[in-house]
Structures are given as structure tokens and as C-alpha cells.
Amino acid sequence: MPVVAVNAGEALPETLRHAARALPPGAPIVVMLHGYRYSPRLPAHDPHRHILSPEAGPGGVSWPAALGFTGDPAEGLAVAFGWEARGRLRAAYARAEEAGAGLGALIGDLAALAGRPVGLIGHSLGARVALQALAAAPAGSIGRIVALNAAEFQDVALAALERPAGQMAEILNVTARENDPFDFGLEMLLSAGRRRALGAGLAQPRANWVDLQIDDAATLDALADLGFPTARGRRLMSHWTPYLREGLFEVYRAALCHPWALHLGLLRHHLPTRPQPRWSGLRALPPALPGLRA
What InterPro entries does this protein's entry cite (predicted)? Predict the structure, then answer.
């Protein structure tokens, strides 16, 4: 079974229940979460036809394929979770909370059926859905979350980490200075600048949280030293680099499917002590980035 599609508000499909029970020992379960402007109701914006499709869709990217899910049961189980993310940003942000609460319950059932924790990867508001699921899921049901340019605030993440599942899960927070304009826009539009987005990191050190700035040369050097070479360079502004830059999905695959191969303590030891400050990407024009898809 290559990919199982589930949408917010739906019950756990019987096919997914059966697949979870039949998983080989050690095989991972990964839930994939799209971000803003997708809608399972609209064919032109259906995430199951785009980034969450088993094969590359109109944008030329397939998350399941990039994570190594080709249909072999030994590879594990990939779950594509769709939710209504169109409309005004404030409305989509609110719907992400509801979608995450439902997903938390679904993950609890899925983890119990499979007898193992579930991994999540989400981009933008999809990372907010993942953190809301973390706040709602049972203890031990979530193993790791990979958040890609999360459209979420520090205080929300800290609250999720205090919940039963949040105390046991590990989070890899993928950020970029290329995303600074989007973080700033989120802060201004949804909090009038009173709250700080996760692009600035968590603010309070936690043993189960690592910030990974993917447009920082020292960070890319560290990833290369760990066996994960990626494309180099920096754009002035991009919200989509975390899933378009060549080589990064190998990091996410290891983090989610083979967590023993990428221990957070080892990663933290190799990474720079702190990320670069906001707007530091504006100090110089970005070089060409041949490894980034248009």
C-alpha cells in the first residue's frame, strides 16, 4: 500500500486500520501535512493530487516518493492528511487547530493499532496542524515531528510540549532566513506583532527540540559531515525551500523513518549554537541556487 489518503473530519479508514495492524516490526508510520491554500474539495488544489500524491504532481514534487515510500510494505506506511486550508489566513489558521485536534485522536488510534509511535511532517500551516495534534494526542503516540517553515507561534509550540505527547515526542524545526518575510507577515497579521513565530526558534531550550536553519552555510556543512549533503545557496525570499532544496528529504527520511540514525543529540552537537538573526539574509544578494527547483 503506497499512500493512504485521509481528510480532516473522516474516520480512520478500514484499509488504514488493516495496514497498521499488518506493519512489519520496525516499519515507520509517517503522516504528511500540507500547508496553506490546499483543499481536498477542489481538484485544482487537492493536495492528494499535488505534493501528497504517490507520484510527482503538477509541482513536480511527491513527498511520499521523496520519503522513500514506493508501495513495499516493508518501507512502512505513509498517510496523506488533507484539510481545508483555503480562504483568509486567519480563518485557515483557526481551521488548522480543529484539524490538528482531530488528527491527534486519529494518531492515537493508529499508534495503538500498529504498536508504535507515529511520525509527522508538515509545511507552513501543516506544521501548525502537527503541533495541534501533538497537544491532543495520547502520550507516546507521536515519535517525531518535522516542521517545515512552521506558520505557528512560539507560545503555542511551548504549550504543546507541555502536553503528555509533547513531553515524549521530538521536534525538528526546519527554518530559513528566506522565510523571514512570511514569519513577519504571520506575526503582524495574526498578532499585531505581539507574538514571535517559530522561524526565530523555540526561544526556550528543550532537550526534545532542535532548530535547523537550512540556508545557513555552517548548518549545511554540519549536515554534510553527518552524511547528508544538500544543495547550497540562498534566495532572498522563499517559503517552500524546505521541500524544494535537493538533498533535504534525505534528512527528513532519516529523522522520521530511521530515527536511530539521526539522534537529536548528535545533530545538536554538530549544528551551530544559535541560528542567524532575522533579516540577516538581506545583507547580501543571494547566489544562484542550482539545486532548487523553480
Answer: AB_hydrolase_fold (IPR029058)
Shortest CA distance to 142 belongs to which of 125, 160, 158, 120? 120
Measured between alpha carbons, how far is 45 from 119 in angstroms, rounded to an integer? 25
Give me the amino acid identity at 11: A
CB 82 within 8 A of CB 52: yes
Segment (H or E) for 89: helix 89-114
Is 24 in contact with 116 (CB distance < 8 Å)? Answer: no
pLDDT of residue 71: 85
> CA-based angle 198:171:148, to the nearest 5?
50
What are the respective helix, strand and coil percentages of the chain, to the nearest 5?
A: 45, 15, 40
As given in the structure block, the three cell numbers for residue 124 are 507552513
Can you give the length of the chain in residues? 294
Residue spans of the domains in the chain: they are 3-270
Residue type, 63: W
Whole-angstrom Cα distance, residue 177 to residue 216? 8
How much is the pLDDT for 294?
A: 39
Q: How far is C-alpha 149 from the chain's CA centre?
A: 8
* Distance of alpha carbon 86 from alpha carbon 141, whole angstroms: 29
Q: Which three cell numbers stand for residue 90?
A: 486567519
pTM of the shown model:
0.94
Nearest alpha-carbon partner for 153 in 112, 192, 103, 115: 192
Radius of gyration, alpha carbons of the chain: 18
Give the residue ranges of the chain where pLDDT is below 50: 285-286, 288-289, 294
Task: Specify which residues 123 forms β-bridges with.
Answer: 148
Sign, CA dihedral 48-213-270-132, equals negative
